[in-house]
């Protein structure tokens, strides 16, 4: 498999909209929030052949945004495009949350706050096995409310897992609320820094900038990219609107969304 530096964000958004409409399911805003991050991550995966034990690993900890992951897998050739049309169908491996039976998906996720523990284990395993493979994990901002995230963060810093990069989708929203009203997230960069991580702050919709960060040489400790994002990014009526965590689109909403994301 080869990669170009072509941006994937818009193509991922189109698939998210098309498939959520066809299957009549929600989690659209969460998937649009990470479209550029997932696009950059899958371009950054230098080795992604599922048969190669030294392939780089990607963990979508916020598993409810799985549709963005499936779209990216299709863009890089790990998922047949026709399989996208089975999303949420009977007997399909493409459920609302990702399954590790799917080629290119190493860990089933969706139980929030657990992805970093799995990614940290994968990073430590690479070190113990003398492998140069890298591990990327994408977390939501509100997952950082969970204690298990900080246990894993301490462990990764203790073991100086420079092969581990976390991306935090800082969209300032979580399910039914805004993080400022539930648990304030503005201090996330300082918190990660205090836990011994190399912290980079970035615009989470600048796919090229994110790609550059993800492909930069590993540090002597784990790295976190706190990516500023907009929930529902690309669709005006969804942006920063809580209800689009769950709602499916009407026909008219779908038409407007597709014309707005372009591509
Ligand atoms: Mg969030």
Terminal-residue CA separation: 24 Å
Strand content: 5-15%
Order of helices and strands: HHHEHHEHEEEHHEHEH
* Class based on secondary structure composition and strand pairing: alpha/beta
Question: Helix amount, in percent?
Answer: 25-40%
Q: What's the overall average pLDDT, rounded? A: 95
Radius of gyration over all CA atoms, rounded: 17 Å
Number of strands: 7
Please work out how many helical segments DSSP would assign.
10
Key descriptive features of the protein:
263 residues
Q: Helix and strand layout, with pairings?
A:
Layout: H1 9-23, H2 28-33, H3 35-44, E1 57-60, H4 66-75, H5 115-128, E2 135-140, H6 147-158, E3 164-170, E4 173-174, E5 177-178, H7 179-182, H8 188-194, E6 198-203, H9 207-215, E7 223-228, H10 251-261
Parallel strand pairs: 1-2, 2-3, 3-7, 6-7
Antiparallel strand pairs: 4-5
Helix pairs in contact: 1-3, 1-4, 1-10, 3-4, 3-9, 5-6
Magnesium ion binds at residues 140-142, 169, 171, 173-174.
Task: Describe the 3D structure.
- The protein has 263 residues and is of the alpha/beta class.
- It has ten helices and seven strands.
- It has helices at 9-23, 28-33, 35-44, 66-75, 115-128, 147-158, 179-182, 188-194, 207-215, 251-261, and strands at residues 57-60, 135-140, 164-170, 173-174, 177-178, 198-203, 223-228.
- It has a five-stranded parallel β-sheet, sandwiched between helices. A two-stranded antiparallel ribbon has the order 4-5.
- The protein starts with 8 loop residues before the first helix and ends with a helix.
- The mean pLDDT is 95.
- Bound molecules: magnesium ion.
- The site of magnesium ion has 7 residues, from β4.
